[in-house]
């Protein structure tokens, strides 16, 4: 398949503006500037692009929520706080093709009529921040940024803003608070950022990969996009060739594992996959024959999320894997809401005591109950994100209670073995050299 | 005596302030600049940042204590952060920590090695899962770690 989003990856000096121009870069921008902002928003709606950060919210609809009569300046915030475990696709875009990101930001800013854009990049991505900063300077020199861009009268400033190590700042209102120079404590919605965002002004927050999509829709057309929609998949864990892969949205998960990533190494067997970043329910090996798109994965009881696939072979202890994730959420809970702050801590503790041979059989129900008491009871989705790997997605038929279809029930036998035998069921050690 | 930014850092701070509609929004970037100059964010550094941004020190402390990347105490010349979240963990992340502890002569989360060179921490996902196991040392990522690669790196850093 022709590479669209990752076309520049592997090309020498791909970060340089002249190289980007030589490969057809900044060609969508003049076309976009000749359209009206409303036409661009309609184009995004028609193409059906859904947010690539995790929630999968329709991008065109998000943009159309901006109030028409608010005289305050508008802001575009590019969410590059890529922190969802298993996710590393935006890093590839920013480090290998920063001008694609910048072109996408200019077009998106024009569409929403923002004159200031911040790229909120996670603090650890120092290399990415430096590359973007340099690329922004090149774009200013060539007249793609600043006042009167390409003679259109449109004005835009972009600034790289480094975070400082907090998963919660990837949540859009946590990001806004952090950008304002505070703790990244999410805000209660409504008001939504489109109405009251950063500095109290109308604000759109989108993921990096989402914000590069308008370039390709403009260059190739809405129909092409609908027929060929490209998506980045982050493949990690027990794979022969882990990495970021571009494939058509809806590519089968087993095809990604076997054909793109060379399968599971060392003759091991596939055991489980977390398909959309650590926050989504896990799939058993036999459930992995599934199309990697929003609807198919939702039907399979999981979610596409950020498309971070964590692949586990039969050397993986599922109790230990869940404990690992619970440590993550417990550490990253911002502490604002009691159910999440206390609940993630208890999930870590309970899972830890099962893993270390001190578990009780009733701990399994306790974990499911704790997860249920977090989900849907917090300001932001971090609580849900911690609960779903434990106890699955909300079930409408159970009044919104979690359906129980994730780690604890799908691998219940392994949890019970741990409790009864005070040791791990998996006896094959994983080697590291 | 109250701390001051170096002339070079002062320029960076001034440029940074031009990029935001108010001074408080420059909090994280100015803290980063301060940490590059002073090595950690001590109470004196917090005072300097507060003065620079026209904010009470409590606002600065509020932020510093929230984010993992700001150190309130000094770290080693080579501050090693090993990712231990799932994708790295199942590819040897914790063995990397054990191996580094032996090589560097300091335990994880236990201050700085006697020679002042190393400090080690375990951190959550660094967004480098496709190249696991990995670690961040100061600003740089080191990926696809093997024992041999760690030997080379640590020996090089010991001689620097």
Plain-language structure description:
The complex is a heterodimer of chains A (433) and B (160). Chain A is an alpha/beta fold. Chain A folds into three domains: 17-225, Rossmann fold (3-Layer(aba) Sandwich); 229-313, Roll (Ubiquitin-like (UB roll)); 318-421, de novo design (two linked rop proteins), CATH 1.20.1440.230. Chain A contains 18 helices and nine strands. Chain A has helices at residues 17-22, 28-34, 37-47, 59-64, 89-96, 98-112, 126-141, 172-179, 208-220, 222-228, 253-260, 294-299, 318-332, 338-355, 363-374, 382-391, 407-410, 412-421, and strands at residues 75-80, 116-121, 157-162, 203-207, 230-237, 243-248, 270-274, 283-284, 308-313. In chain A, the strands form two sheets. Chain A has a five-stranded mixed β-sheet, with helices on one face. Chain A has a four-stranded parallel β-sheet with strand order 3-2-1-4, sandwiched between helices. The longest helix of chain A is centred in the C-terminal third of the chain and has 18 residues, at 338-355. The radius of gyration of chain A is 22 Å and the shape is globular. The model of chain A has no long low-confidence stretch (mean pLDDT 96). Chain B has a four-stranded mixed β-sheet, covered by helices on one side. Chain B has 160 residues and is an alpha+beta fold. In chain B, helix 1 runs antiparallel to helix 2, helix 2 crosses helix 3 and helix 6 (93-104) runs parallel beside helix 7 (147-158). Chain B starts with 6 loop residues before the first helix and ends with a helix. Chain B is built from seven helices and four strands; from the N terminus they run ααααβααβββα. At the A-B interface, strand 3, strand 5, strand 9 and helix 13 of A face helix 2, helix 4 and helix 5 of B.
In short:
With 433 residues, chain A is α/β, with parallel strands linked by helices.
